[in-house]
Amino acid sequence: MHIYDLPTPAVVIDVAALHKNIATMADIHPGRRLRPHVKAHKCTGLAAEQQGVGHRSFTCATPREILGMIAAEVGDDFLLANETLDPLRLAALAAAQDDALITVAIDSEETLMAADKAGIRNVMIDVNVGLPRCGCPLSMAGRLADAARVRGINVRGVMGYEGHLMMVTDRDEKRTRVQQAMALLAEAHEDVGGDIVSAGGTGTYDMFSGTTVNEVQAGSYALMDSHYGQLDSPFVQAMWVVGTVISVQEKWSVADVGLKSLSLDHGDPKIEKHSVWFCSDEHTTFSPLEGEPRPKINDRVFVTPSHIDPTMAMHDIAYVANQFGEIIAEWPIDLRGW
Amino acid sequence: MHIYDLPTPAVVIDVAALHKNIATMADIHPGRRLRPHVKAHKCTGLAAEQQGVGHRSFTCATPREILGMIAAEVGDDFLLANETLDPLRLAALAAAQDDALITVAIDSEETLMAADKAGIRNVMIDVNVGLPRCGCPLSMAGRLADAARVRGINVRGVMGYEGHLMMVTDRDEKRTRVQQAMALLAEAHEDVGGDIVSAGGTGTYDMFSGTTVNEVQAGSYALMDSHYGQLDSPFVQAMWVVGTVISVQEKWSVADVGLKSLSLDHGDPKIEKHSVWFCSDEHTTFSPLEGEPRPKINDRVFVTPSHIDPTMAMHDIAYVANQFGEIIAEWPIDLRGW
């Protein structure tokens, strides 16, 4: 099967670009130095490629992602880098603890108690390092670790996500601010103990020299999107939502790729050599840049999403293509849901 | 089961509000005057409620939606109000033509030929009435209808979607502009023939008096969203993505509802009596308005999405609740995909 035979809209991954991205990151953060975030692709087939270059510890955003990774036998050490109070989901994680090392992030007494009640054996203290989201204040981290240990729970260390710094474009400014955020995390680590200091993302993966961070949680680097593509980085676009041109008018054309097949939260998608006018539920209206030919009905278009994570979560299957456009694998996007 | 027992994030429908919206629209456009658009909910359980008040013809955006409606035995007359060139999907529709009346929109020679080749028996001419998307120019409509009839295909009439006018807030201006758009459609109808003149949406459902439009394609009215909620209309919010407060800090709180459980393409979601700061993949950061109490960990929050259609498409199940918050039904969101 060829890209041109696929039912559209379809997620297509360029296997060479994917392998390049995975190899580039593994050179910089080999083995357990990288804890790839599976929320970016929700696909055990892709995670297996990350394991193939030596990563065996993974970051997950949902219990479902951890349980799906264990079922697919990819990875052996999973961090739920997100708070949950759901007793059934925590119990399901606890029941899987003989199959893999599972660690749950906590940032409050309540999340600690929920983990304890479910029988979770390992936690990580999630510390706020500047992004207004989850993570306890620095002053609370040590107490929370002590409270966990009193309950017989192992505290593996600290994590802090500096998500507010991902898109700082001046690299010197970014480095300074990441180092300041990581100084907070190091201070929390002194209070908390444990082996792990976990942080980072695709926007900051190369900003940790001189910090105590010993694992990086990047995810988007493998497939990329137009948002992260704005940054100066060695990672290349490796995924597109491929659509079919279904209507051609004098001034615009329409592809069958819309809001239900790509996420617009980071802005409109991009189509090379074309201008995107707007997206509707099932459509992207676009036109060629000056000097470019008008598309023809039934042409394929390669649409680059602005945000990879929620876009992948909209699809059932990722089609993996070689340089000839042949489909060499179909990877179920099997970690969707919560 | 109660709303407070649901795993979150979860789509919850207020059955009384849903029934009120469905009854209100059926009063204005009874029976086949309304062709409810199932793309707004992708849920045969909800479509069955629309059938319950007398609608048996439905609008669909994807072949999958039509085939799912037929499988669920809801409705008897389906319009694919969207162009497709996919031979396999058109063949699947053609194979279902003995089970229901299926009509496919066409706006070009190519879409006509694809429908003909697959054995589609009924088409509708999709005419551009001002929105830069699908729909042929007025000058082409009659020729396309003639070409269909030459091939032995029945032409049921015309459709034109005035999507660019949905959010015009001045009602007099909106009425004038809708009438202008529908004058184009009436002109196309003279050239095309057939019984049906189909148009409209939740933003224009009451703008067709004095036009030749004889069926309205509204969909969002049943559940609503914060975007359509800005308009002066009798329809009330009937759906929320219910989340759990997983983290509470001094200045903000975090719920487990994010970009993977609601669509941001029409703006940030809303939480009553609170200010929404921003959404991440799995989180909404928010804070109470002045004078309102701070949320507590494990509280439930009711998040109103800005755009209902892509939000529903992110979920497996819609939980239907009564006025006591009890879950009285679980409707699979069974029409997802293409």
UniProtKB/TrEMBL annotation, chains A, B:
<dbReference type="InterPro" id="IPR026956">
    <property type="entry name" value="D-ser_dehydrat-like_dom"/>
</dbReference>
<protein>
    <submittedName>
        <fullName>Unannotated protein</fullName>
    </submittedName>
</protein>
<dbReference type="Pfam" id="PF01168">
    <property type="entry name" value="Ala_racemase_N"/>
</dbReference>
<dbReference type="Pfam" id="PF14031">
    <property type="entry name" value="D-ser_dehydrat"/>
</dbReference>
<dbReference type="GO" id="GO:0036088">
    <property type="term" value="P:D-serine catabolic process"/>
</dbReference>
<feature type="domain" description="D-serine dehydratase-like">
    <location>
        <begin position="238"/>
        <end position="322"/>
    </location>
</feature>
<dbReference type="InterPro" id="IPR051466">
    <property type="entry name" value="D-amino_acid_metab_enzyme"/>
</dbReference>
<dbReference type="GO" id="GO:0008721">
    <property type="term" value="F:D-serine ammonia-lyase activity"/>
</dbReference>
<dbReference type="InterPro" id="IPR029066">
    <property type="entry name" value="PLP-binding_barrel"/>
</dbReference>
<comment type="similarity">
    <text>Belongs to the DSD1 family.</text>
</comment>
<keyword id="KW-0456">Lyase</keyword>
<dbReference type="InterPro" id="IPR001608">
    <property type="entry name" value="Ala_racemase_N"/>
</dbReference>
<dbReference type="InterPro" id="IPR042208">
    <property type="entry name" value="D-ser_dehydrat-like_sf"/>
</dbReference>
